[in-house]
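User: I'm putting together a teaching handout on how multi-component assemblies are represented. Below are the sequence lines for each component of a complex, exactly as they appear in our records. Could you produce the 3D structure of the whole assembly as C-alpha cells, so the students can see both representations side by side? Please keep the chain order the same as the input.
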Amino acid sequence: MNAFTPEVQVAIARTRDEVARLHEELVRYELVVWTGGNISARVPGADLFVIKPSGVSYDDLAPENMILCDLEGSVIPNTPGWERSPSSDTAAHAYVYRNLPEVGGVVHTHSTYATAWAARGEEIPCVITAMADEFGGPIPVGPFAIIGDDSIGRGIVATLEGHRSRAVLMQNHGVFTIGKDAKDAVKAAVMTEDVARTVHLAKQGGPLIPIPQDAIDALFDRYQNVYGQQPAGVTK
Amino acid sequence: MNAFTPEVQVAIARTRDEVARLHEELVRYELVVWTGGNISARVPGADLFVIKPSGVSYDDLAPENMILCDLEGSVIPNTPGWERSPSSDTAAHAYVYRNLPEVGGVVHTHSTYATAWAARGEEIPCVITAMADEFGGPIPVGPFAIIGDDSIGRGIVATLEGHRSRAVLMQNHGVFTIGKDAKDAVKAAVMTEDVARTVHLAKQGGPLIPIPQDAIDALFDRYQNVYGQQPAGVTK
Amino acid sequence: MNAFTPEVQVAIARTRDEVARLHEELVRYELVVWTGGNISARVPGADLFVIKPSGVSYDDLAPENMILCDLEGSVIPNTPGWERSPSSDTAAHAYVYRNLPEVGGVVHTHSTYATAWAARGEEIPCVITAMADEFGGPIPVGPFAIIGDDSIGRGIVATLEGHRSRAVLMQNHGVFTIGKDAKDAVKAAVMTEDVARTVHLAKQGGPLIPIPQDAIDALFDRYQNVYGQQPAGVTK
Amino acid sequence: MNAFTPEVQVAIARTRDEVARLHEELVRYELVVWTGGNISARVPGADLFVIKPSGVSYDDLAPENMILCDLEGSVIPNTPGWERSPSSDTAAHAYVYRNLPEVGGVVHTHSTYATAWAARGEEIPCVITAMADEFGGPIPVGPFAIIGDDSIGRGIVATLEGHRSRAVLMQNHGVFTIGKDAKDAVKAAVMTEDVARTVHLAKQGGPLIPIPQDAIDALFDRYQNVYGQQPAGVTK
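Assistant: Of course. Below is the structure of the complete assembly, with chains in the same order as your input.
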C-alpha cells in the first residue's frame, strides 16, 4: 500500500469519512445540483488532502471513493479511489492549501444567489448582522479565471488573504469558501448563500440601511470569540 | 439537584420537551440555517424559562440539552444541559419575560424575506387578510441593537408593547416573535415569513391595494375570538 | 347514528378518505402553512359535503375528523368529527355547492405567488400554454370580501360562473378553486400557484408575449378533450 | 407477443427501467408539477422509443406502464402499457428521433424559471461558467407552436440542429432538451432550470458581465472532453 505512518493512515480515514459526509450538507441546503460542487479537507499532520471525484453523483459518494492528493494536486497512486479523476477544481484546492497553511477545508459551489452576484461581479454588502457575525464585512469578488490550472487558486488566495471573509465570489463562476476545517468551510458556503439570498431580496425592495463599521467590528469580534460552546476547560 | 417543588419539576420537564420539539418546526418551515435561530418558553408557575443552547446543530437538540434559566437569563446550575452556553440571545429573551408577563414563548429567526424587510428598516404593510387575521395590522420595525446585552430585549418590548403584532423586525437583524406560549410564538414566526414573502412578491409587481382599517379590525377580532377549536365547555 | 341510506353512508366514508388524503397534496406542493387552507368535497348522491376542521394541524388530519355538513354549511350532528368547528370558510364552500351544481370539490389556499397577484387585484394573464390548457385564459380576480358569511361564496360564484377558469383570486385574500371533484379542484390549486409563479417571474424580466386567442382556444379544447387517459371503452 | 429479437427485447426492458426511474429526477429537482413533463429514450439498436403515458401521476410511474412507440410516434400494440395513451408530446419526441439520429433521449418540462424566459421569448445569455461548460453559449428560443402535430418537433430540430445547446426554450411553452441518452437529456433539463434561475436573479440586480467568446469556447471544450470520469482504458 503506502508508506504512511499508522497515525497518518488514521487521519486519512477520518478525513475521507468527514469529506464524504459533509457533501450531504451541500445537498440538504440545496447549494448544488447534479454533480456540481465539491469539498476537500486537509489531512491533519500530513501534506495531503482528500477531495471529491469528478462528475460523480451525490448519491454515490462514500469514504472509499474520495480521492487522496498531495499539495500539488496529484493523486496518490494505489490508494482507495485513485483510479478515478479527482474534481476538476483540484488544482484550485491544492493552491489554497499550499499558500494558506491555516486553511483545513475548501468548498466550491455554484449556489444560486451567490452566483447571481458573481455574474454581475458585485460584492455582497454587509447589511445584516448575521453577515457581520460570520464574515466581518462584505463578501468580496475575485477575478474571472479559467478552470483547470492555478488561476482560480491564485484568485482565491489573492482575494481572501488578509480578508475577514472566508468566502469569495469568483466572477461569472460561483463561490469558494475556506475554513479552519472542512465543516467550517461548509458552514461558510451555507451562510454565503443565505446572506446572498437575503441581501438580494432586500435590495430588490429599495435602499438598504448600512451597518456602522464599529458595529460590524463588534459583532464579528463577539461571534468569533464568544458564540457557541467553548472548548473544555474554558470557564464560562 | 434543585429545590424545585415536584410540580415545578414536572413543568420544567414538559417545557424542555416542548422547546426541543418546536425547534423542528423552524427547520420544517425553512426559517433557520445551520445553528441560527432559537426558541424559549417560560416554565408555567415559575420564574424560569427554557432555551436552546448556543451554536448546537438542530439535529442534536433534545430535551436534556435545552438550558434552564432564571428571568435574569442566568443558567440554573446543576440542571441538565447547564454545562453548555445558552443561546447568545438569552438576555433578549429574559428581558421579554421580565417585562411582558403575559408572554409564554419567544422565537428568534433570520428568516429570509422578513430579514430582507429588516435590512431596509421597512415595516410590512397589512395588505392580505391572513396578515390582518394574525397580526391585526403591519409588522413593525424595531431599532438596530447590538447582540449580547439588554438592548435587543428593550427594542422588542418597546416596539411590541401595546401593539397587536406578535412579531417585530429588528433592523438589519431578523425577527423576534412572542406568544402566549412557545407554540404560539412559533406560529407567529412561521406566519411572519409567509406574509413577508407574499407581500415582497406582491410589491415587486406594482401598487398594492390597502385593506380598509375597519376590515382589518373585523378580521383580527374574528380570528382571535372565533377561528379554530374552542376550549372544552364552550358551546358552538 | 343517522338516517342515511347504506349507499350514502358508503359515499360519505369514501369522501372523508378522499378529503383527508388530498390535504397532503397541499402540503407536498407547499400551498399552505400551519393550519391555513382547506379542501371540501360534495358527497355524491347527497346534499352533503365534507370539509376540514378549523385550525387543526395538517399532521393531525384523518378521515374521522373531517366534518360532514349540509349545503347550508351546518354540521350534521352526531357524525364523526361533529364536536369540532368546521373550517371558517365553510359558508363559502356551501354557497358554491348550492349555486354551482356541477361542482364536486372546492379548495382554498393562500399560496404565495397567487396571493401576491391578489394583493394587487391583478388577474394573471394567459401567456403560457400550460395555462391555456388548464384555465383557457386569464385567472380572474374576485371582489374583496369579509370572511364568515356568504360574501366570499357570492364573489366566487359571480366571478367563475360562465368563466373557463376553475380558479379565482379573491382580492387581498388568496385562491379559491372548483372542480368536477375534489382532486380536480386540488389540481387547479396546484396549477394556479405554478402559473402565478411562472408569470410573476416572466413579468419581472420584461414584456410578455401574448398567446393569440385562437391558439388559446385550440389549446384549451385539446386539453379538456384529448389529454390524459380516456375512460374505458373509448377507442384511441 | 412481438417479433423483436431477444437482444431488442432486453434493450426495451432496460429502456423502460431507465425512463421510469429518470422521471424521479424531474420530481427531485422540482422541474414538474402534477402530471406535467415527460421523458423518452430511444431503444438502442431499434427504431423504437419508450415514453411516459399521458396524464399519469409521477407516483404511479413504473417500467411496465411506460409506452413503446415506433419513430412515427405510433404505439406498438400488445406491448406492456399499450392500452394507455402516450404523452401528448409524443409526436414531438418522435420527430426529434427521426431527424436527429445522434439523439438518444428527449425531455420536456415547464420548469419555472426557464418557462419565464420562454414567456418573453428571450434567450438565456451565457454569463456563468457552468452554462459555458454545459451549453457552450446561450440557450436559444424556438418558435411558438401548437401541441399535437409535428410543429413542436420541427421547431426543436430547426433550433437545435448545429447548435451547441442541448436545450431549447419553446416560446410561451417550456423546455425541450436532447442528449446522447435519456440521462444526458435529464441533466440538460436540470441544468437549464439552474442557469435560467441564476441568470434571472443576476439580471434583476443590474448589468451582467459577459464572458468573452474565447473563454466560452475553452470552457465548453474542456467540459465536453475532460470533465468527469474517462471510459475504461483511457489513461489519465
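A couple of points students might notice: Strands of chain B lie at 38-42, 48-51, 67-70, 105-109, 141-142, 167-170, 174-179. The first strand of chain B starts at residue 38 and ends at 42.
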